Amino acid sequence: MTNVQFNNSARRDTRFGRSVWFSASLLLPLTWFVGCGSDEHKINAFIHDWEASTSGTEYVVQPPDELEITSPTAGEIDGERHVVGADGKISLRLVGQVKVAGLTPVDISRKIENLLATYYHSPTVSVRVIRTSSKRIFVFGQVARGGPFPYSGRDTVLDVLSRAQPTYLAAKEQIKLIRPSHEGTKRHTITIDGYKLMEQGDTSLNMILEEGDVIYVPPTVLAWIGLRVQEVLFPIQPIAQTIITPGQTKVSYDVLYEDRRN
Length: 262
Description:
This protein is of the alpha+beta class. It has seven helices and ten strands. A five-stranded mixed beta sheet has the order 7-6-10-8-9, with helices on one face. Strands 2-1-5 form a three-stranded antiparallel beta sheet.
């Protein structure tokens, strides 16, 4: 009796596995045909020209960036750290409220020096951005860590990829750098061979990024097919577990029972 039950359970599992495989094999050509030409549409879906401004390589301070101020001639403000407020200002001793939003660190240094000139002779001030919270670079696709990254003004493709960590599913030779613009006709998409950059050290491909840049790491062809099949099979996975698990449990029970009898 045990052998009959074992065989019936095995047949049910086999029939179910064959039906799933048959459905997947029918779907593969369709997903290949529909999906292979749609990368550009997928990229455009998360790019909005009006949301990002490429303003050059000189970093411009905005709220809520954090600044560090150094001044060997003015001890009142030397070593202070300030988060730029929503009004674009920081508050310093002696000089009070200083509007810094829209200025570069060098511009802010000169502005504070001019304000300190009332109290000191030839004051010297240095301003450094220690936390960039107002600007972002974005990474999507087959990476371990995606999403927004702080933009410092000195970021490169290699910097960002080393933080994002492309996975084994990534087509490293086809990494896309998308540079948005307020004018849609000026948007640029550049293909970067990340394999040569990361594996072979070809630094000629290590471009300096700008605020709002998007790096998209696509999947390989086989990975793309696997992901599409996984999406289709996901709704029926609980059903598969419900059907297969009782059969597997019965087999385990029968084997254990036979062992105890012997």
